[in-house]
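Why does residue order matter? Because the sequence determines the fold. Keep that principle in mind as you read this record.
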Amino acid sequence: MSRSDRSTRAMHQALPPALREAVDDFAEHLSRVRNRSTHTVRAYVTDLVSLFDHAVRMGCVDLAELDLLVLRSWLARQRTTGAARTSLARRAASARAFSAWAHRAGLLSTDVGAALASPRAHRELPSVLRADQAAALVDGPTRRITPTDPPPTDLPDTHGAPTDPARTGPAGEAAVPLRDRVLLELLYATGVRVSEACGLDVGDVDHGRRVIRVFGKGGRERSVPYGVPAQRALDDWLRQGRPAMVGAHSGDALLLGARGGRLNPTTARQIVGAYAEAAGLPRTSPHGLRHSAATHLLEGGADLRAVQELLGHSSLASTQIYTHVSVERLRAAYRQAHPRA
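Structure:
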């Protein structure tokens, strides 16, 4: 547990029972009803505990006493302590989401957070690879640039099974680059999130139509196509790689870690970063590959709404940032090539 998590837990335990119960009920609502990820629920809880800790300091010991003044005071305090605009925007969104839920649940007489304004978060243009750089990255395992998994004691697989000696022998070692190759190919070919890639089961792959079934944020299901290189990587992995790494705790997981359990997203991020470094590329993450895939699709003429569907964005505004990337690239090319730029 991180220091931040320990601090949040301590503040949570120090809250008055009514406020503590409200935090717990809202967390359960997010997890079970809204189907939010563990990471998202943790972020909401952290924000709410901070809000209620501030409210108690202002003399608010009951949920009914929560009002707009308390919310604004909390955000103002966050700003004076150096919180970034993006953090302030997220915390305001957390407060509004809780307020709306508490009003619907009858815990608040009015939705006090509805009028809470927040600074517009500054959205930086995502860093993307050129097409040739992305190709060099996904071809890394084929060239036998094979970074190894981190030690199992540092990053246990989902089930925490003991390492099977059979998977650490020559067959298991030969399977690692096949696993890495299919991971990189799928991330770039489909633009899926790293959590979505690691969550894939063998049955989620439709080889005939070259489509994968993905369960994204909020449990929303979508179908995403992939190309011939990814299909070849999948064929090699399923025929030669996965059987060498499969174990008692593998289940239906498509991508496996060193212990034979489902591949951990943190491990997947380290794999991508290691291959990027080995290929002499800028520091790259799975999310960077997602940015790159979206940008290259739009630069190739793909429709914006089609890219929105592929990425699983609930709002078109989330996808439009990639049009900004393309414009910036166009401007860069113009400045470099035009004699009167």
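The chain has two domains: 3-115, 131-336.
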